[in-house]
């Protein structure tokens, strides 16, 4: 399910945030949930093969016009919208109901209100579909270099086999969580760039671990594979770090492909 939250303010026409701001939008989303549910989701999530997964994806903020970027800040003109995708019913109702009932919400040091919520169930009805990103798709390999942790972000151009394999196994982990009693669909999975993708880098503030860059790919992809895995891509996101603002996608139908 895609949940779109619309934010504005009666007191200001814009909000100013630091360049590393995705964690602020993520924190606002958690604030919409009942405290105990938010705490469990944030600290425990859902466990798959020893890895924590949140089973929701967050878009980057979508402003009414182009943001203004400074050296260390960004100004978003209001209104803005945020898209959240998840198959978990409690999260759908929590995000939607919390946004509409909370009154004033805080994003960083800014106060906004949610005046509207839209929900849309996007269906994977073909084993081949084109999607576009609402936040960049990222996947990576963690290892060591000179005895220190090192992250290598994968490219859909230079590392296509590793990139595709990483995306596939991530979808499989999500499938196992959602459908623990079902067999993994056996058809081949492919993710193919459509047109020219753009690499996007955003700084993420993880508090105790400090601020670090995350790299991802923005644009359109064609997905080919079992319907069940394509549906999970729409509902849970593609790749890693979905709940932190990466891999949120929307379907491009043939009828709307030129607009998409």
SSE diagram, text form:
Blueprint lengths: L1 E7 L5 E5 L3 H10 L3 H9 L2 E3 L2 E3 L3 E2 L3 E2 L4 E2 L3 E5 L2 E6 L3 H13 L2 E4 L2 E11 L7 E6 L6 E6 L2 E6 L6 H19 L11 E16 L5 E14 L2 H10 L12 E4 L8
Antiparallel strand pairs: 1-9, 1-11, 2-8, 3-4, 5-9, 6-9, 7-8, 10-11, 12-16, 12-17, 13-14, 15-16
Secondary structure category: alpha+beta
Main beta sheet strand tally, sense and closure = 6 strands, antiparallel
Stretches with pLDDT under 50, minimum 5 residues: 254-258
Question: Strand tally, please?
Answer: 17
Order of helices and strands: EEHHEEEEEEEHEEEEEHEEHE
Top-tier CATH class of the largest domain: Alpha Beta
Mean pLDDT, all residues: 91
CATH topology of the largest domain: Alpha-Beta Plaits
N-end to C-end Cα span? 19 Å
Number of helices: 5
User: Judging from the principal axes of the Cα atoms, what is the shape?
Assistant: globular
What integer value in Å does the Rg equal? 18 Å
CATH architecture of the largest domain: 2-Layer Sandwich
Q: Roughly what percent helix?
A: 10-25%
- Indicate how many domains the architecture comprises: 2
Sheet-strand content, in percent, reads 35-45%
Structural commentary:
With 260 residues, the chain is of the alpha+beta class. The chain is built from five helices and 17 strands. It has helices spanning 22-31, 35-43, 89-101, 160-178, 227-236; strands at residues 2-8, 14-18, 46-48, 51-53, 57-58, 62-63, 68-69, 73-77, 80-85, 104-107, 110-120, 128-133, 140-145, 148-153, 190-205, 211-224, 249-252. The strands form five sheets. Strands 1, 5, 6, 9, 10 and 11 form a six-stranded antiparallel sheet that branches. It has a four-stranded antiparallel sheet with strand order 15-16-12-17. The protein has a three-stranded antiparallel sheet with strand order 2-8-7, with no helix packed on it. A hairpin with a 2-residue loop joins strand 3 and strand 4. Helix 4 crosses helix 5 (227-236). The longest helix has 19 residues, at 160-178. The radius of gyration is 18 Å and the shape is globular. The model is unreliable at 254-258 (pLDDT under 50).
């Amino acid at each position: 399910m895609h949940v779109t939250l619309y934010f504005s303010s009666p007191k200001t026409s814009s909000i100013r945030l630091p360049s590393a701001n995705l964690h602020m939008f993520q924190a606002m989303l958690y604030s919409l949930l009942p405290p105990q549910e938010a705490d469990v989701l944030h600290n425990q999530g859902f466990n798959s093969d020893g890895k924590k997964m949140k089973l929701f994806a967050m878009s980057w903020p979508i402003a009414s016009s182009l943001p203004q970027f400074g050296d260390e800040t960004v100004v978003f003109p209001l209104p803005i919208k945020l898209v959240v995708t998840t198959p978990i019913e409690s999260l759908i109702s929590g995000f939607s109901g919390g946004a509409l009932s909370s009154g004033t919400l805080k994003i960083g040091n800014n106060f906004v209100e949610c005046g509207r919520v839209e929900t849309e169930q996007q269906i994977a009805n073909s084993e081949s579909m084109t999607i576009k990103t609402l936040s960049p798709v990222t996947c990576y390999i963690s290892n060591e270099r000179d005895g220190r942790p090192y992250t290598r972000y994968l490219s859909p151009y230079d590392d296509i086999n590793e990139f595709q394999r990483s995306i596939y196994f991530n979808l499989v982990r999500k499938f196992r969580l959602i459908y623990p009693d079902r067999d993994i669909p056996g058809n081949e999975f492919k993710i193919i760039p459509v047109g020219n993708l753009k690499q996007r880098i955003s700084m993420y503030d993880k508090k105790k671990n400090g601020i670090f860059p995350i790299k991802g790919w923005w644009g359109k992809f064609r997905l080919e594979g079992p319907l069940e895995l394509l549906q999970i891509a729409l509902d849970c996101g593609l790749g890693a770090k979905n709940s932190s603002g990466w891999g949120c996608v929307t379907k491009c139908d043939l009828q709307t492909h030129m607009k998409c």
